[in-house]
């Protein structure tokens, strides 16, 4: 037993002094931060799309027909003329949404023109917006690039933002994605048959200071 205790203590000491193990942990933590920021900024478009589908209805009336929203969410649309605006208000205290996440604050969206019109710019900003007590800051700009050579609608998506974690750590995330609507654009009022292809790249600085970059080498189908 004494010999086994010595071996275990030696192994633990070797692991603690292994610089490669520390580097690997830093890389893993940075990758987790990158994935978290990517997910949080990506779902802003999903939430905005959901808001548009319900026009100016209060979500208290349509809870069962939403994925991301909850009973405390109110949507206000000003669509009399362009640029029109959308305000998605989760309130000032945490609200449990239908996807199981707690949100508070507001998502503010401005459309310079119709969603499917070439040249339209959709700008999303955030006002005291939190997801599971992670604060999102920055902007997301979606620009309609018109149809590509396959006659599919395309949008360039640029994100320049930060995520402040509950412990105070800050993730910086900057990326550019091309969003191609590869299927379902001929049935604009049927959302569930939509298929998108994403390409592009991004850079991130994790909360531990590690930096990384990523490029989509094969299109991601959504």
Question: Could you explain the architecture of this structure?
Answer:
It is globular, with a radius of gyration of 21 Å. It has 222 residues and is of the alpha+beta class. Strands 1, 2, 3, 4, 5, 6, 7, 8, 9, 10 and 11 form an 11-stranded antiparallel sheet that branches. It contains 2 helices and 11 strands, in the order ααβββββββββββ. Strand 7 (153-164) and strand 8 (170-183) form a beta hairpin.
Could you outline the blueprint of secondary structure elements for this entry?
Elements: H1 2-17, H2 19-53, E1 74-78, E2 84-89, E3 95-96, E4 102-111, E5 121-131, E6 134-147, E7 153-164, E8 170-183, E9 195-205, E10 211-215, E11 220-221
Antiparallel strand pairs: 1-2, 2-4, 3-4, 4-5, 5-6, 6-7, 7-8, 8-9, 9-10, 9-11
List keywords for this structure.
single chain, 222 residues, alpha+beta, disordered N terminus
Strand content: 35-45%
Number of helical regions = 2
Coarse morphology: globular
Average of the residue pLDDT scores: 86
Looking at the chains present, what oligomeric state does this protein adopt?
single chain
Secondary structure: helix percent: 10-25%
Would you count the extended β strands for me? 11
The biggest beta sheet is recorded as:
11 strands, antiparallel
Helix-strand pattern: HHEEEEEEEEEEE
Termini separation:
56 Å
Rg computed from alpha carbons, rounded to a whole number of angstroms: 21 Å
Structural class: alpha+beta
List the uncertain runs.
1-8, 56-64
